[in-house]
Amino acid sequence: MKKTLFTALLVAVAAFGEPSILEKIDAKMAPSSTETYRKLVNIEPDGSKKEFLLYQLKKDKDKMLSLFLQPDSEKGRSTLRLGENMWLYLPDVGKPIRITSMQSVTGGVFNNSDIMQVDYAVEYDVINQREEAGEIVLDLQAKNDTIAYDKLIMHVDPATLTPTKIICYTSTGMLIKTLYFKDIKEFGGGIVRPAVIETDSPLYKGYKSILVIGKMDPKVLADEVFTIENMGKVQELR
Description:
By secondary structure, this protein is mainly β. Helix content is 13%, strand content 45%. The chain has helices at residues 2-16, 21-29, 112-115, 120-123, and strands at residues 33-43, 49-59, 63-70, 78-82, 85-89, 96-99, 124-132, 135-142, 151-157, 162-169, 175-186, 192-200, 208-218. Strands 6-5-4-3-2-1-13-12-11-10-9-8-7 form a 13-stranded antiparallel sheet. The chain starts with a helix and ends in a 20-residue tail after the last strand. This is Outer membrane lipoprotein-sorting protein. It holds the Pfam family LolA_like.
């Protein structure tokens, strides 16, 4: 009987396999179902700033929903991401409109894909892994041409298994932007990850954008939360 059980376990392990390094990194960045409060700051070359406060929900590997809480001019707007499909809901319009991953609903250097990041393992394959200056360095290739960046070079802290820097390129090798992950912090539910993401881009010289996670907790969420019909009701989930 014991031998039979052991054999069954081996078969199960072989069937499901070990998580890839990218899946392990995704698990460190956010559990499968979470509630997050983030501040987004766009800084212009003259030093002026525009700030946004976002309430975000994530489920599984590729479902994201955001609600703008501040400023008052953006209050009530929501964005939904299901895989590579995205929508923006404007309260004054009353119905969702399609948006793309490379657009930015907030202006600044972060695009919609950065703000509504799904699991990296959903979008990218690891084509090379190496060690460099005490870090793990992963070369990532997009799985299809609808993804915002064709290639990523991801630097990973081996101690926390979280990114320290991600360099984003087009298919022609043009640098689009660099994301810097900083300030490792412990959140609720044992989540330990960078609390700050900064970005700059040679395409937006002098501009800088910063995302700061103020709170992140595991939260049980129904699939129905992540629907176009629910985009005008996100406030009720807080």
